[in-house]
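#lab-general

N.A. 3:47 PM
ok so I finally got the sequence cleaned up, no stray characters, all 139 residues accounted for. can someone with queue access submit it? mine expired

B.Y. 3:52 PM
send it over

N.A. 3:53 PM
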Amino acid sequence: MNVLVDTSVWSLALRRTSRNLNTAEKAIVAELADLIDEGCAKIIGLVRQELLSGIKANEQFVKLRDILAAYPDEPADSSDYELAALLSNKCRSQGVSVSVSDMLICSIAQSRGWSIFSTDSDFKRYARILSFKLHTPRK
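B.Y. 4:20 PM
back already:
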């Protein structure tokens, strides 16, 4: 069971301190830790870029970059981008607005049969239209 982890989940785990998380957020971080331990957590370059963007202090950037280096990017190719465009068109034809980055995540997850782990409610709307599963904490 591979799970494509969205920026929102990685951010909870890597950019926030545990004392600043509520109970639900702590469960999400614990689930990410379990997925990592199981070798099931996947990341794409776009998510890596989003995580590293907006960090003001170079030391923090380097620290986060070095932590993320342990997780190789799942490569995206032309077919992933083409499927992302098709998925985008499908959502928009049903009145659901999308972002380019979210559609790439959906495309990669769908084409590989992976679920998506995100706290972003947009993915719930996409899942009603597209063929991918959302991952939720198992505990």
